[in-house]
Amino acid sequence: MLNASTTRFFGYYPGTVALVTSALAERRNVMSAGWHAAISMAPALYGVSIGRTRATHGLVRESLVFGLNFLPSAHAEAIQGVGTLSLRDGVDKYARFGLHASEQHPLALAEAYLCYLCQLEQIIPIGDHDLFVGRVEQVLYDASAYDEQWLLRGTAAVYLGRGEYVPLACSSAGQRGRGGA
Questions:
Q1: pLDDT digits (tens, 9 = 90+) for 61-81
Q2: Helix or strand or coil: residue 79?
Q3: CA 93, CA 36: separation in Å to the nearest integer?
Q4: Of 49, 34, 26, 30, nearest to 107 (Cα)?
Q5: Is the dihedral of CA 95, 96, 98, 102 positive or negative?
Q6: Residue 80 contacts by C-beta under 8 Å, 6 or more apart in sequence?
C-alpha cells in the first residue's frame, strides 16, 4: 500500500548495474550505470544513460563503441567503486578494483557473466544525461552462469541505492517460480 509522498525521484531501484567500458587509443575506462535497458529485439539495441560530465561520455562519443558488462554479486565493491572514481583524476579503475579485459575483446570484462558489445547508433539528449543507443554486435557470456533455458543460475548483484547491494541467488530452473499476469 502506498501511504507516503515525496518530490524526490528514486523509483528506479532495485535493479542491476551495468559496467560500461570504453576505450580510445591508449585511454580506457569503466563506469557504473544504473540507468540502462534493452530497447529493441530487431535490430538488437541496448540503451545506457551517461552523464555529460563523465569521461566515458567523451570516449564513447569519439570511439563509437562501448561494452555493457554484468558482474556477479561477489564484485559489488568494484561495481560501486568504478562509479565513484573518475578517469579524469588519473585513476586506473581496472587496476584499482582488480578488473581485467577479456582475452576475446578489450571492452569485455573477464569477471562478467554477460557482456554486450555495442556499436553506437544514436545519442539522444534526455534531461541531465544522454541516452547512448548501441546496436548489439556481439554477446559474450560465461556458459557456466546459465542453465539450459538461458536463465542466470549465478548470483546477480542487485543495487538497492546509496551504495547498497544484495546478492540475488538464482537456483536451478525447476525451482524457479513462474510469473503470470
A1: 999 999 999 999 999 999 999
A2: helix
A3: 21
A4: 30
A5: negative
A6: 32, 163, 165
Q: What confidence tens digit (pLDDT) does each residue in 18-38 have?
A: 999 999 999 999 999 999 999
Instruction: Judge whether 45 and 9 are in contact, CB under 8 Å.
Output: no
Residue written as grid cell 547512448: 132
Q: How many CB atoms lie within 10 A of CB 41?
A: 8
Q: Which three cell numbers stand for residue 80?
A: 560501486
Grid cell for residue 138:
556481439
Point out which residues pair with 67 in neighbouring strands.
21, 117
CATH of 18-174, one of 3.20.20.10, 1.10.287.130, 2.30.110.10, 3.40.50.2300: 2.30.110.10
* pLDDT mean for each 10 residues of the chain (181 residues): 77 86 96 96 98 96 98 96 92 96 96 98 97 98 93 91 86 50 50
